[in-house]
Amino acid sequence: MTTTYEPLLADFLATHTYLSDQEKTTLASLRAFLEEHAAPYVNTWWQDGSFPHDLLKNLADAGWFHHPYEQTRPFENSALFRGMIALELARVDASLATFFGVHTGLAMGSVMLCGSEEQRQEFIPKMANGELIGCFALTEPDHGSDVARGLETTAQHSGNGWILNGTKRWIGNGTIAGLAVVWAKDTADQQVKGFLVDTTTSGFSATKIENKYALRIVQNADITLDNVFVPENMRLQSANSFQDTAKVLKLTRLEVAFAALGNAVGAYEKTVAYTQQREQFGQSLHNFQLVQDLLAKCLSNITSSWALTMEIARMTDQGRQEDQHSSMAKLVVASQTRQVVAWCRELLGGNGIVLDEGVMRHFVDAEALYSFEGTREMNSLIVARTITGRQAFV
Question: H helices of 93-146, where?
Fold first, then answer.
């Protein structure tokens, strides 16, 4: 497997020069792995709505779940490198980046940021080697953007533990996870707390959401918690309010922006190749002015998004990133990606709506990336709160 890093076609600003040699070598290995084990099969997985369990094992065996964390210490690698992992995954398929982000970001991140030292020592190694896959159960059937105030899942203290009751929806990895990070409202103090739930526990059930036409490879679930008992040592010891939940979301939102960027890059690469090969009126499409105009628009969106995410990644490494920065990255990149994939679909004409060329996957997956991990509107209000000093969520 090659370990020589080749700059991506869409890397107009040569952002790869900000990566260390070791990071570039590692990313080259991931790219080669994905080209061999994922790219030839993603259309089939997407059409079937199936999850590639063998790929998961191969990712774990290759050590990829270790990269966000070294043993139990967080973030040994740069934020740009972690973002580039998401980009490389999403340029092949956004579902792969979403699975990876839920497991290594939201789930492992919850344990790292909000767990006790004992919890980190017990669960991070198991999650890093793929023995235990995690999910992050926050969103509910009736509460998405307003979940901070409207959370209905309850946690009632009982003896040496807690009783959880409620329902969750759109939980990525929900049907394949062995460990669920569940967020529930304490009935005593009305504060949101986090719990590590073994998914084999009595009263816990996860049902795959069917008829989903974006991110089809990700196994999203409806989760029911019916008097689920969680011992006190499985409560996240440093998760005592929604502000602690928000720390985890802040950690992962930038990487979701990188995933959206990777989705745009994947569509752009396929489109450039298509316009070079496809002939109309006796010449390749890429010779026509209107085609070149749309390609330039695509690359301009990608480049401005890449510059923004790269700078915020650098701010993250310097400890200067705030909520409004990651929120701006998510709203800008997801919005510009939506435009890019639409232009790419347009350039492929009728072939843009079939799976064969791959652009259609990126096109519909962009809709999901546009909405989850904070809608455009919610992230816009977080940015605007910084501008005005006023909160306008209701």
Answer: 94-100, 108-114, 117-128
Residues in Cβ contact with 190 at an 8 Å cutoff, skipping those fewer than 6 apart:
none
- In sequence order, the 6+-apart residues with CB closer than 8 A to the CB of 211 are none
So what's the pLDDT on residue 3? 73
Give phi and psi for 50, each to the nearest 5: -110, 155
- Residues 193 and 235: beta-carbon distance below 8 Å: yes
Higher pLDDT, 1 or 240: 240
Q: What is the pLDDT of residue 76?
A: 56
The pair of structure tokens assigned to 282 is: 């006796």
Residue 3, helix vs strand vs coil? coil
Poorest-confidence range of 21-30, 244-253, 355-364, 380-389?
Answer: 244-253
Record: fold of 243-388 = Butyryl-CoA Dehydrogenase, subunit A; domain 3 (1.20.140)
Q: Of the candidates 133, 152, 154, 130, which has an alpha carbon nearest to the alpha carbon of residue 143?
A: 152
Q: So where are the chain's domains? A: 15-128, 134-240, 243-388
Class of domain 15-128: mainly alpha
Of 4.10.280.10, 2.40.110.10, 3.90.220.20, 3.30.70.260, the CATH number of 134-240 is 2.40.110.10
List, for residues 285-330, the tens digit of each pLDDT value.
999 999 999 999 999 999 999 999 999 999 988 888 888 898 899 9
State the pLDDT at residue 32: 93
